[in-house]
Amino acid sequence: MGRTIIEDMIMVEVNRFMKTVQQDIENGVKEHNLIKIVNICVGSIINKMLFGYRFEGETEHEFYYLREILDNLQAHFANPLSFVMMLMENPSSVKNVPGFKQLYNGMLKDFQELKEFLDRQIAWHRKNFAVDGNPESATNFVQAFMMEMHRREQTGNVGDFTLDQLRNMCFDLWIAGQETTSSTTSFGILYLTTHPEAQKKLQDELDRLVGNERQVSLNDRPKLPFTNAVCNETQRLCNLIPQNLFHRTTKDVDINGYKIKKGTTIVPQISCVLYDDKVTPSNKNQTLEKENGFGVRPVLFKCCLERRIPVII
Ligand code: HEM
Question: Which residue has the CA at smallest separation from atom 36 of ligand 1?
Answer without folding.
Answer: 176
